[in-house]
TrEMBL record:
Any Pfam family the entry gives: Methyltransf_11
SUPFAM superfamilies from the UniProt entry: S-adenosyl-L-methionine-dependent methyltransferases
Protein name per Swiss-Prot or TrEMBL: Ubiquinone/menaquinone biosynthesis C-methylase UbiE
Record-level GO BP terms: methylation
Entry-linked InterPro entries: Methyltransf_11 (IPR013216), Methyltransf_Superfamily (IPR050508), SAM-dependent_MTases_sf (IPR029063)
MF-aspect GO terms: S-adenosylmethionine-dependent methyltransferase activity
UniProt KW Ligase keyword: no
Alphabetic keyword roster: Methyltransferase, Transferase, Ubiquinone
Amino acid sequence: MKTEYENYDETSKVYDDNRIPVGIEIILGCFASTPRLLSEQKILDAGCGTGSYVYALKDKLGHLYGLELNEGMLTQARNKCGIHANIGLDQGTLLDPLPYRDETFDGVMCNQVLHHLVAVSEQADFTSVNRLVEEARRVLRPQGTLILNTSSHRQLYDGFWWADLIPDAVGRIAERFPSIESLVSILTEAGFRKTSIFVPMDAVMQGKNYLDPMGPLKKKFRDADSTWSLATDEELERAQARVRLMSQNGTMENYLEIRESLRKKTGQVTLIVSYKQ
């Protein structure tokens, strides 16, 4: 299955090689702030991808459920999580009503998935994001936790060293990301309360491979972030030419230092946490 701009049937095969779950301690802390013990909580990962977040949380929470539309991603999640009795994985879309009864879960998390729901035609009002938030509220129990793991527009430009190489592609994907302020408003309008914002400054989604100076030349590296899929062939060629030139003339190390200094000020991800009353 291919989304509007990314073929995850292909990228799912190498996704985990260059992508790790981030903000796990913050996520656990937010789930723990509610009355029910972590070991008794039932959590939904809406848009679970390859199941990395579900797998990372499996020993801390009672029951985890992952919902994922893409068959390739779901296959990877099943390979990773299938033997664990407290994990359930379902195939389904986040654009329709969630396939769960009212007040089923103690927590719902959406990790770096909101921009995949937004079609070009709806960027002005983010209808699909509003609908998902409303559905999350429906399936949450009273005092349940909703966690939206996303990126601010500034983080998209300054939180990834290679974003400077493909600024037009970053601009295209930024249009699909609701602003942090918009998401807070959406949560409030849907009836959520006690909204908090967390930025794990040290979190790097591409893990140990993030600072690979030759990364943009490698398809596996690019497949770990859908921004690259929005770069035109010409833009990709220009970006790769810059990488080769900086490598040859010895300026790459200084370039990475400058770009890293920006990331350390902005972070890569923002966690928005709110509670159903």
